[in-house]
Each structure stands twice: as C-alpha cells, then as structure tokens.
Amino acid sequence: MTEVTLSNVVKNYGAHRAVHGIDLDIQHGEFVVLVGPSGCGKSTTLRMIAGLEAISGGDVSIGGRIVNDLPPRERNISMVFQNYALYPHMTVRENLGFSLAIKKKAPEEIIAAVDEAAAILGLDELMDRKPAELSGGQRQRVAMGRAIVRHPDVFLFDEPLSNLDAKLRTQMRVEIKKLHQKVGNTIIYVTHDQVEAMTLADRIVLMQDGHIVQVGTPLELFDKPVNTFVATFIGSPPMNLIDGIVRGDNAVELHAPSSGGLHGGLTIPLPSTARGRVSDGQAIKFGFRADNLMPMGHAVEEGGERTELDLPVTLTEPLGTETLLFTEVAGTEVQAKMYNPRPVRPGETLKFQLMLDKCHIFDAATSNAIRG
Amino acid sequence: MDRNLTHRNRRRVLKAVHFVALFLTMAIICIPGLWIVLNSFRPTVEIMAKPPVWTPSFTLDHYRAMFGGAGEGGVPVFSYFRNSMIVSVTSTVIAILIGMSGGYAFARYRFKGKGAYFVGLMLFRAVPGVALSLPLFIVFARVGIIDTHFGLILAYVAMNVPFTVWLTDGFFRQIPKELHEAAEIDGCTRWQAFWKVEFPVARSGVASAAIFAFLTSWNEFALASQLTRSVGSKTMPVGLLDFTAEFTINWGGMCALAVLMIIPALILTFLVQKHLIAGLTFGGVKG
Amino acid sequence: MPRRRFPEWLVLLLPAFIVIAAVVLIPLIFSLYSSFTPYKLTRPSTLWRWVGTYNYEKILTDAKFWAAFGRTVLFLTIALNLELILGLGIALMVNKVTWGQRTLRTILMFPMMFSPILVGFQFKFIFNDNIGLVNNVLQSLGSNTALPWLVDGKLAMFSILFAEIWMSTSVFAILILAGLFAMPRDPLEAAKVDGCTAWQTFRHITLPFLMPFIFIAMTIRSLDVARAYDIVQIMTGGGPARRTELLWTLMSRTGYVDARMGLANAMGYVSIILSILFTIYFFRKLSAARAELGMAG
Fold it and tell me: Which chain C residues contact residue A69 at CB under 8 A?
C-alpha cells in the first residue's frame, strides 16, 4: 500500500515562502491532480515529493515511511518531466532500461521489463532510435515508458502534456488515463490546465499562492466552488461573476463593478438556497455558469427556480453543438450558451432564462461561497 | 521598368564587389601560412636569392636537417616535440578535470556572488604572461621546479583553468537540469548522474574545451621561454628561437619546425570547430 | 538534515581556486612585494630592502615608460577597433555567401591555431626588407627601393599591427558569424517590409542583436591582449630605437636583460591593471548588452 501523505509541508526560498504548510492525504491507487495558475507552488510541491527540492518544514511520507531527507533514488518513485528529459545519448531501449541497469538488474530481467513497457505504450518500432529522431508524442510515450518500467510506488507527472499540440494533448490524456487503469499505481499529476485536471483526476487539489484552496472530485469543484477563485478557475468558459447587493431578504440588485451600486442596477430574485444566509445590504458576487443562462424557447427541463431577462447579444461564437453568446448583465459582460443553434445577429435582444437554483453567491469581501 | 533595371544593375555590381572583397580577405588569411609551408620545402639559397626566384624548387633538406639530431645546426626537434606533447597533454587533462568541476559548479548551483566569482576567475586569466613570468620564475627557482616539465605543466594548468571553466559552464548549461533529475529519480547518485548522463551528453563540448586548452599550452611562449632552459624541457615555441643566431636566421629550418607545430593544431581545430564556437557563445550570451 | 561542512559548489570550485592561488596569486603577491624593493636577480639580498614606492615613482616619472604605456594603449585601441570592424565585415561577407560557407569558416579559423610567436616569425619573414615576400612582390612589380618594413619606426609599427590583426581578427569574425547564424529571420523581414534600407536594417536590427557576440569576442580578446608581446618581441624586440616598445617588451627587458626585478614587477603591475581594466570593461558591456536583449538568466 503506497499512500502519500504531506503534513504541514513548507518550502522557503530565502525569505520568500513558496509553499505554506500543506496537508494532503493521497490514497493508494488514487489519481490526484495538483492544479493552479503558474507560481502557485504545485510544481514545487511535486518536486518535494520527488526529493528534488529539500523541504523546509513538515513531513513527507510515502507508503507510511517518512522520506524527508531521502534522495530521490531511495523513494521508489518515477517522474515524467515537462520536457521529457530523455537521455539524448541513449536509444529508446537504453532510456527505458536505464533505471534497471543502474540497479544492476540481470540483463534478461531488464529486457523483459523493457519489452513489457514498450508493449503497453506501443513503442516496439522505435526501440533503436535516439530521442532526437522521435516526434513530440513519441518522446512523451518514451518518458512514460521510462516511468513504468521499474514499477514504482508512485508516478509523478510534471505538466507532461504542455509541450504537445492541442490534438496530441487530448490523445495523450486518454492514454495516461488508460495507463492508470492498467497499472493502477498512485499518480500525482501537476498541470495548469483545468481541462486536464477535470478529465484525469480522481481528486483535484487546487492551489493558489502556496496554499491549497480546495480539494475534491472534479464535480465537487465544479458544482461547489468554495470561493470565486475556484469558480473562475474550474470550468470553461469561466463562471460569470457580477457584483451585487442584497436587497431585503429575497432580492439581489446587480450592478456594474464601477457604479458601486449607487444608481439603478438590475434586480432579480435571491436564489432560495441563499435566503437567510445573507443580510440586507450585503455586498456579494453573483455567479452562474454559461449553461445556466439560456435563450428562451429551448427544450430545457422544466421546474426549478428561474427568472427571465431581456439581454442584447453582442457577439456569438458557434462551437458546433453549442453556441456561446456574449451579452451584458447590469454592465458586466457575461457568457450564455445556446444548444440547437440558430442565427443570431449581433445587437439583437433575446429573452433569456437564468436558472436561479444553479447560481452561486459569494461574499464580496472574502470571496468565499455562501451556501447551504 | 527603369527602376527595376537600376536595381538589378546595382545588385550585380554589389555581387562583384562582394566576391572580390571576399577573395582578397581569404587570400590575406591564407598566404602567410602557405608562404611558410612553401619555404619549408625550398633550399636556403633560393630563399635568400636576390632577385627573388618565383618558380620554387622542392627539397626536403630542412626536414632532414631538423630530424637529423643536434649536430650540424640541427635542432633537437624530437626532444622539443616530446616536451611539448608531455606538457600540453598533461596540463590539458588536469585543467579539464579541474575546469569541469568548476564549470559544473557555475552551471548547476546557485550561490551568492556567483557572477563575481566568475569574473574574478577570468581576471586571473587576464594577467599577462610576461608580467606573471617574472615572479613565477623567481618562485619556481626557489621551489626548484624551474626547467622541469612539472613546473610548466603547473603554470599551464593555472593558465587554462579559467577558460575551461567558462567553456564547460556553457556546455553544462545547455543540458537541461531535468536530465540530471531524471537520472536521480531513476536511481543514480549525483556522482553517477554526472558520469552516466551529463558527461556523455556534454562530451563533445568538453572535448573542444580540452582542445582549446591544448592549443593554448602548445602555442604558449612568454612563460615557457622563462621557465625552461634546457633541451630536456624546452617546448617547440621556445625551440623556434634556436634557428636565430646573432644576425642571421635559418628561415628554411624555422619554417619546417613551424609546419611541424601547426599540423597537430590544424587537425585538432578542425575536429572541434563547431562545438568550440557553440561553447564560447552559449557560455557568454546566456549569462 | 545532516550538516555539511562545505557547500557542494565550493568543493567543486576548490581545485580551481587552489591551483590559481598557487600559480598566479602567490607569485603576484610576491611580485607586489618585490615591486617595493630594489630587487635585482644578481644580488638576492636586495630583496629585503624596502624602498617604498620608489619603483613606482621612478617609472611614473620615466618618459620611456610613459611612451611605452601610451603606445600600448594606442596599439590596443587601434588593433581592437580594426579587428572588430574587419571581423564584422568578414562575418557579414561570409554570411552572405550561399555556397562553400563551411569551407570559408574553416579558413577563417586558420590564424587562430597559430602560435603568437609563430605569427611573429612568419611576419618577420614576410616583412623582411631583403628576402621578404612583400618586398619581393613590390620589386617584381617595378619598385626599385626595398622598403625597410621592420627598420623604419612607422613601418615597423604598421607591420606589427598587421601581424596582430591578422592573428586576432578571426576571433571576432567567427563569433560574429555565430551571432549572425543565430539571428532570427522575422525581425529582418519585418524591417524589409516596413521599408528599411539595407543600412537601416543593419544599424537598427542586426547590430543590436550582434552586440552580445561582439562583447564576448572583446572579452575573450581582452583576456589575452598581452599575446601581442610574443609578436613584438620576435619581430622588432621593441626596436628600432624603442619605436615599437610596448609595456610588455619594456618590462621583460627591464626584468630579464637588466635583471632589475623590482622595477620590472612594478611595471608588471601597471600592465596587469591595464589588462584587468580592459577585461572588466568588456564584461560589464557584455552583461549590459545581454540584459538589453533579455538574454540574461
């Protein structure tokens, strides 16, 4: 059983603190994705687990064993790097077998392990080439092969797909997921791309400025973001956020960010889930996803709380099965979605319906979610 | 149409000028060297002839005299060649080992005052050989290593270390540090990671740094002329002086020795020219 | 964590520091000391007599020293500038060539592998007034007089400069050529489309990009400007009548011929400071140019 546990892990670079006391439990066989904007400390955290960065405080344990001061080679981990870090002077075969050769394993054992990994990743044809003769996707595969050859306790992936083009990225994403299902090891995966996080993870760890903001399954983060940062980071397009002020106990007045709520905004009903949790005059951020603001007349399921709005469409982005509509609510640009596309002229005003029960209310001062 | 024509004519003229200028440049670069080679094969009478003889005849006299041993105006070429080889090869090997370790430190570690250390190291290279040769002569004489291979090797190691540090620093920095990290994760110690991954990748670069160091030692004169005295330790650049007497110079013999000096340098330089340029520019440009 | 006594980088740098301290630093300290004594090789006891700044005062009030010093600075200024301009020109020409570029580049490296002393002899031969190539050619072309290349002061200076430039221009040419190869094409093409003339493109796009490469070449050159000593020593020995005397030849004569080590070491220090100033100057230029292009890191 190889759980990975971080308790109060800290990383300082001189006076600068890059990681602020992180606690995290990763179960055996779990696929955990660390995600966040660049500079949030996710790569540093991964490198501390790998032993490539010394930890400044706290404990890292792998499989119940504290590994704080162990060099990488004694942690039984493997890692796939962003730029693959294949050994340029070795063939694919030598690259794959390197870790076993270092351990002085018997030649036949190395051959067997290398062939097995090559078969899993479809590398058989490339075994005698040098990394320079491989395409980006092939290098990526060799890097993964090098990682699985030695059956490590934990796989670490450091932004492995960011050097690939969009199409290949989607394809490799699927392969990584298949690989995980096949070998079933614990995987810790770092990325800045929320789509990768959503599609790959059993559990997402969203980080910002060296802190963990939220940990949960992809759907938990999507449906129940703890604050506006999570709300805008997860999901594409990002959640629409509009400044608002609670009026009475069942209404919200939405207004443009600059107006300060002094002159007339747009008043809509307060979603029932938030009633009683906010007070009259409280400044909030009102959030909803594009999927929850749709033109009327769609075949949408009935029921739930709704409100209707007349909004001018400024721009459309047809995406095939759906069309993104750019519009304005109370002086703030928001995006809406339209399934069953029909031509919409810019400037045309449509009647939209907003699904109030899917909306999110955040406290304007703390950015934290207000939820039942 | 007119303007097209003038542009076309101007391009033609420029092309001709370009060709002529390039040809002249290459001629100026090549002729002095060729002149030396040519004269090493001409009899002394012809070299000294007045008016000059333009159709050269061919003789191996100078080479025969040179290799003929110390008698009859001959110069102990074999000894000089051997001294040069011993001194250059040994000092190069040592300088490369020391320089590689230093260059690696600059390329891979972060520490306070790195830039200052680097410039400081380079400044020692800037000390003129003549200026150094005076005190070095006295110190070596005191220690008793004057006129020995060891003394000259020591001096050349010190002279070459700053530059090998510069070059190897550049080459190691071209290697992404992830390679080292990947090797460590694959189970290497730092030492293994260096010798099994980083060194093989940087090998050609290190080789060119070595050749640069070799050439510096091979060609050095200012220090060697003071630190060596006898046939047992004099190197070829110092040996060249053997062909000069009070008022005369044995030009043919000197040219022959010069050719012998140039050939190894020529071969080595051609072998590594590409890496050499890459190393110099990378180390410098990428700071 | 186990505490290490030395950080690893220091351990790695230590051999370099030790060997340089032993072979360069200690002799330099010794020579600094001896520059305050009237030390003569022939009379070792003079090493223990302290004369303060007497040697420095002596050289600083010596017209011969100042003449050599001024000539050295002038020599370096002319040589380095010409080498740069010629190197730049050669690099641009070779860069324009579409065929046989590798061969040309190889030829360019030719002078780099020559020992400076060999260059000295080579040009002493070529500029020889009696049997040298230059005069032979001139006479065959109809000139009656043999030009005294190494005997006349001005001509000798010219000959030495020629030898020095022949030897060192390729450093500039090669490195600038490397810069030209590394140059991205887009800005050049953008400038062309924007209507720049060839000169404007060169001045505003190419040259700024080449600056770091130029300064690398300058730095490398400034590390061993004193190589010129070998050439001058062989070609003229500082003569005729001290007309080509440079700091280094003056120093070596004072030290080895006159055996006045203390005085020579004082001169040595002046020359060391000169070299170091050159080097530091170009190192600073180099990092400035690097920062400007955003290549620092």
Answer: 1-2
Q: Which residues of A touch C1 (CB under 8 A)?
A: 54, 69
Sign of CA dihedral B195, B197, B200, B201: negative
Distances (CA, A) of A342 to A188, A297, A321, B85: 43, 12, 11, 85
Confidence (pLDDT) at B281: 63
Residues of chain A with pLDDT under 70: 1, 258-264, 298-303, 372
Instruction: Give helix B149-174 / helix B251-285 axis angle, nearest 10°.
Output: 40
Top residue of B130, B241, B257 to mutate, by most chain C CBs within 10 Å, is B130
Distance CA B5, CA B95 (A): 60
With beta carbons less than 8 A apart as the criterion, state whether C157 and C243 touch.
Answer: yes
- How far is it, in rounded angstroms, from Cα B195 to Cα B101? 12
Could you tell me which chain A residue has the CA closest to the CA of C1? A69
pLDDT tens-place string over residues C67-103:
989 999 899 889 999 999 999 999 999 998 888 888 8
| Tokens encoding C295 | 């290549």
Chain C neighbours, 3+ Cβ pairs < 8 A: A, B
Mean pLDDT within B277-284 = 61
B40/B253 Cα distance (integer angstroms): 7
pLDDT, tens digit, 9 for 90 and up, residues C195-245: 888 888 888 888 888 888 888 888 888 877 888 888 888 888 877 778 888
- Is pTM beyond 0.80? Reply is yes
Show the 3-state SS of chain C: CCCCCCCHHHHHHHHHHHHHHHHHHHHHHHHHHHCCCCCECCEHHHHHCCCCCHHHHHHHCCHHHHHHHHHHHHHHHHHHHHHHHHHHHHHHHHHHCCCCHHHHHHHHHHHHHCCHHHHHHHHHHHCCCCCCHHHHHHHHCCCCCCCCCCCCHHHHHHHHHHHHHHHHHHHHHHHHHHHHHHCCHHHHHHHHHCCCCHHHHHHHHHHHHHHHHHHHHHHHHHHCHHHHHHHHHHHCCCCCCCCCCCHHHHHHHHHHHCCCHHHHHHHHHHHHHHHHHHHHHHHHHHHHHHHHCCCCC
CA angle at C60 for the pair C55 and C62, rounded to the nearest 5°: 95
Judged against a pLDDT cut of 70, whether residue C279 lies above it is answered with yes
C2 chain-A contacts, CB cut-off 8 A:
69
pLDDT band at B75 (very low <50, low <70, confident <90, very high): confident
pLDDT at A50: 92
What pLDDT is recorded for position A61? 93
Domains of chain C: 64-292 (1.10.3720.10)
All structural domains of chain A, each given as residue ranges with its CATH number in brackets, are 4-233 (3.40.50.300), 240-370 (2.40.50.140)
Task: Output the average pLDDT for chain C.
Answer: 85
Shortest Cα distance, chain A CAs vs residue C1, angstroms: 7
Nearest CA in chain C to A71: C1
| Upper half-sphere CA count for residue B106 (Cβ side, 13 Å) | 34
A46: closest CA among A56, A37, A35? A35
Rounded to 10 degrees, the C-alpha dihedral A220/A221/A226/A231 comes to: -140
Q: Pick B76-285's CATH classification: 3.40.50.1110, 3.30.420.40, 1.10.150.650, 1.10.3720.10.
A: 1.10.3720.10
Q: What is the ipTM of this complex?
A: 0.85
Task: Work out the percent of chain C whose per-residue pLDDT is above 70.
Answer: 97
Q: What is the pLDDT of residues B120-144, one digit of tens each?
A: 888 888 888 888 888 888 888 888 8
Span C32-42, average pLDDT: 84
Q: What is the pLDDT of residue A42?
A: 93
The answer to whether B213 contacts chain C (CB < 8 Å) is no
